[in-house]
User: Fold these one by one.
Assistant:
Number 1:
Amino acid sequence: MQYITRERFEKIVKGKDKIDLEELVMVIENEFGYSVKLEEKNGGDFSEIQKRKMTDLIFSNEGVLKQLSESSKESDDDYIDDEEEFMRLIKEAAGNGSEI
């Protein structure tokens, strides 16, 4: 088991009352030669490696590439621009033109 003496640790942190988490990580990395990456236990963030893998998977998927290509060809006329047009479309869909 690797360890660091209290005396060595005190020299590194120079007698501070409070030690930042980043300082603790630095001590572990420098004194023991480990690379340390911390993430919150219940955090929803993805690591950079996970993000790269997901990006590679998404953009190597033929279906995704086809959808992106098709959506870039779509006209902006397919979108509803204002509330009035939206309400007209809702009434049309209702079929009888009644108030909603």
Number 2:
Amino acid sequence: MFWPSLLANIFLVFQILLGSIHVILEIPPATGWIHTGNTMMLIGLVAIVFVAVISTMDWGPTNLRMFGNQALLLWVTIITVVFAMVHMYGYGLYGGYQPLHVQ
């Protein structure tokens, strides 16, 4: 699991750099699509690592409490969903990526 983890970190650094370029240059379409593709690669690599780790765990009733405080996990989940919804609403409200016009 070393290589997917290393690649995920590399893609994360690239994602941060692309995000800053994306904001500074006022969202040019080319960097937007690269940013989106990089996000998909990053999520895929994190999913590979997550599945590999989870598949090696013992899922007995005592180990289901591995996430610790259940109330904290619930609040973090709610906050994450709310932030995602606000982000999607803002994206739809202020416009998305404009298609490239070929002439």
